[in-house]
Write a structure and sequence with these properties.
Layout lengths: L1 H4 L11 E6 L11 E8 L2 H14 L3 E4 L5 E3 L4 E8 L4 E4 L2 E5 L4 H10 L2 E2 L11 H7 L2 E3 L8 E3 L4 E7 L5 E5 H4 L14 E8 L1 E2 L2 H18 L8 E4 L9 H7 L6 E2 L2 E3 L6 E4 L5 H19 L8 E3 L3
Parallel strand pairs: 2-5, 3-5, 4-19
Antiparallel strand pairs: 1-2, 6-7, 7-13, 8-14, 9-10, 11-12, 11-13, 15-18, 16-17, 17-18
Amino acid sequence: MARLQSLVGRHLDPARLRRDVPLAPYTTFRIGGPADALYDATTADDLANAVSACRDAGVPFFVLGLGANILVGDRGFRGVVIRNLARAFHFDGPVVRAETGAIVQDVILASVRRGLSGLEHYIGIPSTVGGAIWQNLHFLSPAPARERTMFIAEVFTSAELLLENGRRATVTRDDMAFGYDDSLLHHHRHVALSATFSLAPGDPEVLHRILQENLAWRGARHPWLEIHPSAGSIFKKIDGVGAGRLIDQCGLKGRRLGDAQVSHLHANIIVNLGAATAADVRGLIAVIQRAVAERFGQHLEPEIGFVGEF
C-alpha cells in the first residue's frame, strides 16, 4: 500500500512498525486476522504523532489497548493498528495523571500502596486507562451489598485529547459526557492521550480487603481469561435489566457454535474454547439475539466493538 509506505521513516519509527501481524494475540478474545501493519506507540506524544500521520496520509487506523471488549474480524484490519503502549503515570499528592496506555491494574496497585482510594473498585477488569474512560469503566461495589454501580467517571477530573481536527485539548468530566458504557469518545474520532484522576486518602488495610473481595466476587462469576478467553460482556443492558438474565432464561448457557460458547458462569459472556473464529462468535451472537427476541420481544444490542473485516 503506497499510503502505508509513506508513513515509514518520515513519520513512524520503522523499528516499531511491523507488517502483516495477526491480531489474535493482542486481544483478550484471542481472535482476529492480520493487520496490514502494527505500530507500537510508546509515549503519549508518539501516539499523537502516529494518529496524525495516519490521518494526514489517509491511512485507516485503529488504536488498540489491551484488546478487551472488541471482536476483530477473521480477515483482519486494512490499515495500521496503533498499539497504545504509552504507560507512564505519576502521582502529585492524591492526583494521578496517566498516559492512556497505562494498565488500570498497575495504577490501582500503585494507588493502594500510597493509601489512596477511588480506583480499587475496578481491580481485575482488563483495561488500559484509555479503555476505562472510553467505556466509563464500572463495577458493582463495595461488598457485601453491591447495591451500587460505581463508575470511573466519579474520580475522573480531566483528559488530554487529540481532537479529530488535529488540535490537542484538555477536557473536563462534563465535557466527556459520561454515561453507562458511553462517553464523548464513542461519538467523535478524538483520541485520548492522558487522563487525570483525583483520589482520596484511604486505609491501606481496607483497600486491600476491597481488592480481595472484588477479585473473589468477579472470579466466581466471570470465566478466567487465561483459561477461557473472552471479550467481556457481549450485550448492553435493556431498561436496566442485565442481558445475561434474559439469555439465561432462554436456556442458552453452554450453547456452542464451533469453538465459541456461551459461558456456564455468565450468560452475557461468550468464551473461546481454543480455536473460535470471529464467524463463530458472530453466529452465536445471532443465535442469542433470535432466542431473546422470540421469547421476550427484545432486541439485544452488542456492547463490544467490531473491528476490521469479517
